Amino acid sequence: xxxxxxxxxxxxxxxxxxxxxxxxxxxxxxxxxxxxxxxxxxxxxxxxxxxxxxxxxxxxxxxxxxxxxxxxxxxxxxxxxxxxxxxxxxxxxxxxxxxxxxxxxxxxxxxxxxxxxxxxxxxxxxxxxxxxxxxxxxxxxxxxxxxxxxxxx
Length: 153
Hints:
It contains 6 helices and 5 strands, in the order αβααββββααα. By secondary structure, it is α/β, with parallel strands linked by helices.
């Protein structure tokens, strides 16, 4: 397995889009119904997996960002994994440690725990970068996010 994570490829596969949601469950339903999934994965599986994980502990990390993910991998194949960047039209309360409402979600759908942790590490570095944070504030699209990620690599 390649230990170097290419976030730009994962985001391209998952997509960058905006939804309107009243709470995290509503957001997860809309995300599951919006993202492009392999034929063997049903939207309900994604929805239930995200809800189950959120019920354990919030995936909101602060600064208006959440990292929803399943408790265990839902994809068997490395080529199926993806990261969805989801901007929320109206911020929602997800009980973040800093009490800030969430306005962007990075939905991690990986094929194993090691890859999941590598993605989290890569995202943590990006979240500390002022240029990337600004891009999230202005709701940058896939091309702009990918350009910043490549510049920082």
